[in-house]
Design a protein that fits this description.
It is a single chain. This protein is mainly beta. Helices cover 2% and strands 37% of the residues. It contains 2 helices and 25 strands. It has a 5-stranded antiparallel beta sheet, with no helix packed on it. Strands 3-4-5-6 form a 4-stranded antiparallel beta sheet, with no helix packed on it. It has a 4-stranded antiparallel beta sheet with strand order 7-8-9-10. The protein is globular. The chain starts with 14 loop residues before the first strand and ends with a strand.
Amino acid sequence: MTIISMQHLSTPLMLPIMISALLFSAPACSNQTAVNTHEDLTDYREGQASASESLASTEKPTFITKKTATFDEPWAMTALPTVNNEPPKLLVTQKTGELFIVDTATGVKTSVNGVPKVAYGGQGGLGDIILAPDFATSNNIYISYVEAGTGSDSNKFGAKVIKATLTGLDTDAPRLQAITPIWEQTPKLKGQGHYSHRLLFSPDGKYLYISSGERQEKTPAQDMSVNLGKIIRLHPDGSVPADNPFAQNGSDIATQFWTIGHRNILGMAFDDKGRLWAHEMGPRGGDEFNLIEKGNNYGWPVVSNGRNYSGTDIPDHDTRPDFVAPKISWTPVISPSSMSIYQTGKYNDFPAWQGNALISGLSSKALIVVKFADNNGAAERYRYDMGERIRSVLTVDGQVWLLEDGDKGRLLQLLPR
């Protein structure tokens, strides 16, 4: 296997990206100080993400990158509606609590006022951002962030989701107004990991999906009395749909749940067939790519294709067919951090990726392209060595944008060559 290194050029120049197909070993947590997974992985199974699949095609598209702006600990991005065929403007969150509107034509960043106070630290802070389905008329957006507890919850934390109106878009002082709470993790816990808090609307705009991590506590994922370790499904106003699968469970909080048994979901997306997919960070090995279907239990922490950080074994998925197994399992891990489905639009920069999932990788420092199958299967198709931890990937009208992780993280546009 050949590794092609990246050469960092000066800012005004574009950076050539040479392709590689390296399988990376690194920790599954987004915390850069997490346990190294290079050791004791030789007996892990690689599931459907075998080397033969990920290296099957040698004719993958190549690209160069164009730097647009830089950020300090960016976490998520989404695109505002395009106006008069102009280059897109992006909303970008920084984990430290800042929200920016970015003009991709000029790289100019405009700070948005009125963002709620966030509990920054560890994996926590300002999180995801998406547009409301009716944004064109309402200017409403949805934001997730980590909130510190008070009183008996002092020194405890949990994710929260709000709806807000984004005003002053055409001014130099945009602001969030009419902030409305939508949902929060219950209970708040000590520690600052595995919030997940990824947001996604269904294609018809009727339902809001929220990934809720198990806060590094494992057992909440199977506990029907707490909303941790679950995928949540709500109406846009935060009310619970009557057809949610656990509505008759007897627990009011369980009525929120769409699926259970999750560890740390940082990417969710609907494909062009309307199927919901999510990727999930495993422990020491065993990152997952799952088809999310109503009422399913995905097994964490009872089963996993990885091991505990201590090195002790966890039964594999094939030992418990009552739990839903992943369509792809990655060992060594890729540390998936976000996902976007590529669709052509005004631009068609990467026609070979049409309908594929693009996944950003942290420890793998990679962009991973996954293809779907009609039989509800999936397989890794391409992998690109980006040379830096990639926090977010976004496809906009046939173009692709990446956010690097950490301090001085660059917003990059991928340009085909």
